Amino acid sequence: MVESNVPPSSPAPKKEPKTNRLGFERKVYEGSKSTLCIGCGHDLITRFLIDSLWENGVPPHTVAKMSGIGCSSKTPAYFLSESWGFNSVHGRMPAIATGANAANKYLHNVGISGDGDTGSIGMGQFVHMVRRNPQCVYVVENNGVYGLTKGQFSATAEKGAKLKTGAVNDFHSIDLCAMALVLGCGFVARAFSGNMKQMKQVMRAAAAYPGMALVDVISPCVTFNNFDHSKHGFAYMKDHEEVVNQFGFVQNMENIETEMEPGEAKDVQFPDGSMIRFNALRDDHDPTDKQSALDLLLKHYEAGEILTGLVYVNPQTPSFAEVNNTVDTPLATLPAEKTRPNAQVLQTIMNRYE
Amino acid sequence: MSIATASQEALAYKIQGEPNINDMVITVATANGSGSQTSNNVLMRSIFRMGVPCNGKNMFPSNIQGLPTWFTIRVSKDGWIGRRRDADILVCMNPDSVVNDIARVRKGAVVIHEESLKIDPTRDDLICYSVPFKKMVAEVCPNAKLRKLVVNMIYVGVCCELFGIDLEIAKDALSKELKGKAKAIELNKPALEAGAVWARENLTKSDNLRVEAMPGHTDGKIIINGNEASALGALYGGCTVLTWYPITPSSSLCEALIDFMEEFRVEGDGKKTFTHIQGEDEIASVGIAIGAAWAGARAMTATSGPGISLMAEFIGLAYFAEIPVVIGDVARGAPSTGMPTRTMQSDLISCYFNSHGDTKHPVIIPGSVKECFELYCESFNIAEQLQCPVFVLTDLDLGMNNWPSDPFDMPTAPINRGKVLDEEAFKKIEKWGRYKDVDGDAIGYRTLPGSFQGGAYFTRGTSHDEYSNYSEDDRVWVANLDRLARKLETARAMMPKAIVDGAGAKKGVIAFGTSDFSIKEVLKRLRAEGKEVDYLRMRALPVGKDVLDFIRAHDEVMIVEQNHDAQMRMILRDELPEFAAKMQSLRQYDGLPLAVETVYEGLVDWL
Known about the structure:
The complex is a heterodimer. By secondary structure, chain A is α/β, with parallel strands linked by helices. Chain A is built from twelve helices and 13 strands. The relative contact order of chain A is 0.12. In chain B, the strands form five sheets. Chain B has a seven-stranded mixed sheet, with helices on both faces. Chain B has a six-stranded mixed sheet with strand order 3-4-2-5-6-7, sandwiched between helices. Strand 2 of chain A pairs parallel with strand 17 (458-460) of chain B.
């Protein structure tokens, strides 16, 4: 860009800051400065989380942002400072998120985890969170390595992966998306922090999904696992990413102004009225077909390719809140009259024990 | 004479000679899964309905079906409900355990046994009643498949006749036990009657044991187990989220609470004012409770020893992030998987000091079914006021056995959510910090997720300052740890007070939980023999000032507990190291409820 040494004759017109439907600027959705390594993939994810929640017009104070332990789990401090946050213990964010959802079904939950946090210590809780299906944007910031403890393998590292130290991983890697599919997850997506346009659409759709929305983001660790040969590195992803579908997310109340052509499109509607419009569908995959989603994931895994996109979506899967069928008032704020039965009830019960 | 026999003599449980009215122990040996529970309950409730104080204890194996199980009814005109070591009447319905049962039964006991079972001839001291149960059940129950379930009812009939238990009352009790189901009653009643008739026509009574009506004595009383009482307490404590993982002996507490909630906490349109979640393990269970409590629910979980160990990391998080949560522990034989169906006061240390680092938590220790109700109810208020995990510690004996009690009263203390800020209150504060000690009691004010804009803060288990910001500053760390320790001092004054009986003696007994029943009985007897002794029953940790004063006021104290390492004494010695030498220890840790004989033997020479 050529620098001009000619001062402008008049000041540029002051730009009106963009606001969302709540009247908030994007900066309301920001958090503290990141302390992660420069170039860390996770910071891009944070950026798109901020974008998607802002664009979706979610009130920040209604978001509960939760995490386990790890580099990824530090990121809730870097977005939504107006939201209540809970950085809990390693691998156990699902329990916290499930409990929060039970206590107050109106919270918009965002759960940040990593491949160690979810794929190792958290594997059990992950499975059962999928089964219970509480609303939550469940983001796995997946770099194939344990960053915060300085570079050990994680369970998503590919067989044959090599560390700086020369150590080699002998074990099969876990495909969290395939697992979630088999367990009944109704929103399974994989993204790559280098494919920004796709990440935003995925995040926006995930934030509108009524149950647990898994977003497995390949997010390279520039310090410990960004070698050319690492399947979780930028170089490999750029060459081997296979995008499964293009889609646009349409918020309810938004005008439909996507670039997508209705021709080859398939629309999937969410209970809140928002919509995903899939375009340029492949012959071999309908995103509402679980079997083909699984086939595709496994096929690409064998071929060493990383499938990204919204692999599967089913808005009909009952959410935890639906199953729990609680009163309209959150359990958290029920008054005593609703939770402590009266003296007659106690007498009735006492009579049973005579 | 051995001390065991001496105590038996001293405690005067006689089977021969003058009539022994309403003072005996009946043990029935059956196989589990054979319908014996119905018969056992019918026998016990019949005696109870005659106005005679009694209670029943189950000794069951860690198994579903087919292994030996024993039911012991203590009949006591004076209302004593502690365990006596020996049975006066042994009913042998199980061939698999009969050899061992006979070998261990006390001298001179009454034995009612199946005719075909051979009784050890060297036990010529026993008073045996041989009964043809197998032949009789074939006569009253044509359906061979159901005989196994019906045969036990015959022993009830025999006992009614032999010991003077009112058969009409027994039939009523049967009807109530079977919940009025006509078919089941039709099946069982003939067996009950046949037993009584056969005994009348064939047996000559040669023992002195009798049950006689005590009209009015048990009127208005209830019979309930500790887990049901605890569940009721949680219901009346306003619990909104229950999480659990099945484990003996706490499962029935959670199942009872679920039943109560499903019956009494559903609105007209079918919507619920609670959620119960069966976690995938204890870690998830306590984590879900903590997440729910963080978001503002009144949350609890209940487990036993192994679960407490699993939960330790999350409990440390709740301690450090200051999240209220009630954790029930119904203790059992420990360590490790231990004896899942036996009782011990095994978890005092593991609850009080739970988790790594310097952590101590309030522990509430009920000593009766009524206290299970009252204290579970109150535990939620305590947890939310203190903003910390609160343990309610009982044991299998209290939790799973049926106890007589006065009916429970409506709680008087209102539900107290502690220091929670709404938007209005929040706006009045100049610079709010989640962990600021503004009131001097070491407890900050919290806001609930989602409640209003501007109230958010970040919860973390890592080091944090008063504003809950991450901090590695050494002064911030020290200040926080010091404040948490001060919070325990605030807790000390809030916990249920000890119950003190007597003052001015040189020696005192200290105990807690289910030890109370046997201790009360023995102290009455010892005092009648002229011994002077005071007694304090602790009901909580941290140790209250009243307990410390009691120890200071006596030359020696005997701390009675049902664990191996004298855990309460360890805690008390730590509180009052200068008096460590005056703290003696009396322990029973065989997995059985504390026996009167153990207490007598332990105290009689010391006093």
